[in-house]
Amino acid sequence: MVKNRLLISVRLLVLIQSTFLGLNSGLIQEAFASLPTTAATTALIKNELLNRGPSSSFENLIVLWERTYGTDAVPSLIGLASDKKLSDTDRFIAFMSAIKIGGKAAAPLVTPFLKDTSWMIRSAALRALRTIADPEKDQNIAQLVLPLLQDPALVVRSEAIDTVLKLKPSGSEDALVQAIYHPSNYRPARCKLELKGKRPCKADWIPARALEALVELKARSAVPRLKLLLSYDRDPALKAHAIKTLEQLTGRTLQSQLRVGASLNERAKAWEKVLSE
What we know:
277 residues, mainly alpha, two-stranded antiparallel ribbon
C-alpha cells in the first residue's frame, strides 16, 4: 500500500466532512486532530462493511475495526454513516461503530445526524448521545434533542424522551408537556384532542411516557398544565395516568376528600377542584 500518496491529513478530511455534514470543523479537528486517516482506510472499512458475512455481528465488526485501525477508523466511519447511497442498516452500523470507537470525544460528530432523513439514524444519534454526551458539559448539544420530541417517527419520539431524561436540557419540562398534548401522539392518526367527542382519540405510549418523565424530573411546576387531562373522557387510561402523575408530583392522594371506592371520574373532579383553587 503506497501510503505516501494515499495519506490524507485529518484536517483536510475533517474539513471535507464538516462541509458535507454541516459540522463545526473546529470542534471535530480538536477532537480528532491527531488521527491520521487514508482514503485506503475508508475503502477497506467500506468493503468490510458491505461484504460482511451472515456471521459477522455488529460487535465483531467493531472489534475488527478497533483492533485494525484504532481511532483512525472514526472519520472514515462517520463519512460512511453520512453516505446516503448506502442502506440505512449499513449507515447505522458505521455510525454506531464510530461512536463506540471514538467515545466521548465523538459527541460533536453526532449532532448533524439528529436531522438525518432516516428515522433509524436519528434514533441512533439519540442513543449515542445518551452514551457519550456529558449532561453538564454538552448542554449545547442536549438542546438539539428537544425538537425530536415531535419527530414524525414514533420510535424517535420515544428515544428522545429517554435522552431528555439523561441529558436534562433546559426547557425539558415545557417540551414534555407539549409532547403530552401533541396530535401526533394520538390515534387514529392526529385525531383532534377535543375533550368530548364521538370518535375515539386515544394516546399512544408517548403521553404516558412523558408523564413519567415529568415525575422523574420532579417537575412539580408542570402540575397546573396537566389539568386538561382530567377532563379527557375519550381516553380513561390517560386520565388515570394523569391522576397518578399528579399524586406523585404533589405527594397527595386526596383520599380524605373522596369516598371509599371513588370512581375515576370522581377522583378527576376532586383534582380539578384542587387545581382550580
